[in-house]
Design goal:
Keywords: Membrane, Transmembrane, Transmembrane helix. This protein is an all-alpha fold and about 130 residues long. It is about 80% helix and about 0% strand. The protein has helices spanning about 5-25, 25-50, 55-70, 75-85, 90, 100-125.
Length: about 130
């Protein structure tokens, strides 16, 4: 199985995990877990879209995207969009909260670990001497 396919499966698992965390866990737990998994998702998306991206670069890009989205919340635009179409809230959030940045850092690091594991597994699968 290609590393892109494995990463795509991991991506789906992260989405499901994030939605379940928000729905099934108490808000003080589900919120932070969901935020971290959001960043993990963004890192995995980077690798799915650009498969040759190294894990450290994917982490940096993913974290930067999360920071940009969090800062975008300061404009009020995401909240206004979420008022018109509530699912936007899942992608853009609505309210800036500095603590989210730490959660994104943790989630991006987790995404980097997942990318490294998938890359290693994929390289072993293509080596005829393995």
């Amino acid at each position: 199985m290609s590393s892109r396919r494995v990463t795509s499966f991991a991506l789906v698992g992260v989405v499901v995990g994030g939605l379940l965390a928000r729905a099934a866990l108490p808000a003080p737990v589900g919120g932070p877990v969901g935020d971290a998994l959001y960043a993990t998702l963004v890192v995995l998306l980077v690798v799915v879209l650009r498969p040759r991206t190294s894990p450290p670069v994917a982490v940096a890009v993913g974290f930067a995207v999360c920071v940009a989205v969090e800062l975008f919340q300061l404009t009020g635009v995401p909240a206004a969009l979420a008022d018109r179409w509530p699912p936007v809230r899942l992608v853009l959030g609505t309210t800036f909260w500095a603590q989210d940045l730490l959660r994104y850092a943790v989630g991006a690091a987790l995404g980097g670990v997942l990318c490294a594991v998938v890359a290693r597994a994929g390289s072993r699968g293509t080596d005829p001497s393995a």
